[in-house]
């Protein structure tokens, strides 16, 4: 029974990933306004009914990668040693995220640009953001003995590290940085945060 449930969950995850990947490919190629649920389902090799079993809209399907990336942060952070300082844990997680060969930064940049140029995707991203990003803050609160609902610390740390990661990636993808790679920028950003972002 347990193995059957595990297989079923893996098949569901694979179907969801296939639909999300198909939605992203079509949105990049055609523009989100020209993409339909029927086209996404066809691209993924499933029925339109199956698409609607997993996603309520094409925008949600395109943005599934964003939600998955938040869960990646959560899982990686939970996997760090419990007695490790939170700053060390977060730096390890961020470096692991930006150097993951399975998620090329170029592809991430294309998706970010796609979202930022689509009002429909931006609106849906805000909805998803409000729902899932709290999860990272909750893990930080657990690790630091703080309360995400009443303490500034887990919320500030969560937002600061997330912003540091985005700024580092934006600078690297612009091609204007002299850094050897995104990892160097991320580590420098974390160093500056730890020091209270001192004036240059």
From TrEMBL:
Presence of the UniProt keyword DNA-binding in the record: yes
Keywords assigned by UniProt, alphabetized: DNA-binding, Transcription, Transcription regulation
Domain HTH tetR-type: residue ranges: 13-73
Residue ranges of DNA binding: 36-55
Pfam families per record: TetR_C_14 (PF17754), TetR_N (PF00440)
InterPro entries assigned to the protein according to its UniProt record, in alphabetical order: DNA-bd_HTH_TetR-type_CS, Homeodomain-like_sf, HTH-type_TetR-like_transc_reg, HTH_TetR, MftR_C
Name the UniProt record assigns to this protein: TetR family transcriptional regulator
Protein's organism: Rhodococcus tibetensis
């Amino acid at each position: 029974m347990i193995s059957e449930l595990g297989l079923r969950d893996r098949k569901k995850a694979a179907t969801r990933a296939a639909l999300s990947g198909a939605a992203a490919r079509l949105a990049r190629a055609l523009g989100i306004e020209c993409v339909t649920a029927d086209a996404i389902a066809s691209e993924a090799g499933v029925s339109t009914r199956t698409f609607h079993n997993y996603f309520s809209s094409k925008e949600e399907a395109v943005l599934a990668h964003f939600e998955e990336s938040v869960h990646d942060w959560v899982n990686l952070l939970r996997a760090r040693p419990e007695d490790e300082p939170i700053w060390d844990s977060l730096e390890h997680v961020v470096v692991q995220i930006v150097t993951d060969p399975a998620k090329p930064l170029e592809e991430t940049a294309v998706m970010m640009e796609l979202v930022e140029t689509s009002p429909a995707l931006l609106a849906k991203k805000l909805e998803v953001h409000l729902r899932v990003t709290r999860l990272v803050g909750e893990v930080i609160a657990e690790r630091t003995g703080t309360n995400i609902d009443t303490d500034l610390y887990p919320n500030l740390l969560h937002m600061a590290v997330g912003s540091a990661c985005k700024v580092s990636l934006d600078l690297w993808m612009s091609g204007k940085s002299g850094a050897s790679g995104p990892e160097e920028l991320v580590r420098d950003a974390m160093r500056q945060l730890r020091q209270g972002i001192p004036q240059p």
